[in-house]
Specification:
Elements lengths: L1 E3 L2 E6 L2 E6 L16 H15 L6 E5 L6 E3 L13 E2 L3 E4 L5 E6 L3 E6 L4 E6 L1 H6 L1 H13 L7 E4 L12 H10 L4 E2 L6 E2 L1 H11 L4 E3 L23 E7 L13
Parallel strand pairs: 4-6, 4-8, 5-7, 11-14
Antiparallel strand pairs: 1-2, 2-3, 3-15, 7-10, 8-15, 9-10, 9-11, 12-13
The chain binds zinc ion.
Zinc ion binds next to loops.
Length: 253
Amino acid sequence: MSEVRGGSLFRLGRVVALVSDRTGPGVRDMSYESGERSQVTSNRGWAAATVGAQPDRQVWCRQVHAATVARVREGDVGRADAVPIPGTDALVCDIPGVLCGVLAADCAPVLLAAAEGYAVVHVGWRGLVSGVIDEAIGVLLGVCGRDASEVTALIGPHIGPCCFEVGEEVAEDLAVIAGDAVGRGRGRPHVDLGRVIEVRLAALGVTDVVAPFGCTRCERGRWYSHRRGDSARHALVACLAPHAGGGDRWGGA
Ligand SMILES: [Zn+2]
């Protein structure tokens, strides 16, 4: 991981990924639903340049907290403000030079990186219960012809167990996936969302997991938080480089 102004940059083999934060110019709102249009286009252009994608070759989800995964085709690729693929919470891409992005503010943006492609996934509790990680892994492995043990996962910033208070029904649904991720000592249940994601990934064979970020609701200077009342969104974007680069797996991109 290396820090850039307004984000954190990762390189996993050919996959270059950026997690944007609100410290950049214009507070880096990545969502057209909340941000000023030209500013969001500029922010997405900056993200594209940072991961090595062309600014007019982008694909974004229209997230609905479900488990629909789209494999990105050439016809889906367009400008930053092109219509996003409707009803999707994950994109799988093996086309070099294209930016694929997901938005988040408390939910976890997750990258699944393989040698010849990747998935970007928007993961909240609804998506987890619906099986969005299972779906994304399945599509990715089908596209890349790889085994889950060859996939590396990056769990982006999300609401921490300190702040993720849920109702009893949600707690029960998530406890089915990871019983030890649900804490019941302080009134309403608190859930460790990152832990649920890790357990689900491990069950699917993905054990190489990196989760370097803190709580989106607590770290108000760095992240957007839906529960804190923000309408803006940070993003996780990724791009497949045309050729394998040198250097170590976590080398600066
Ligand atoms: Zn917190």
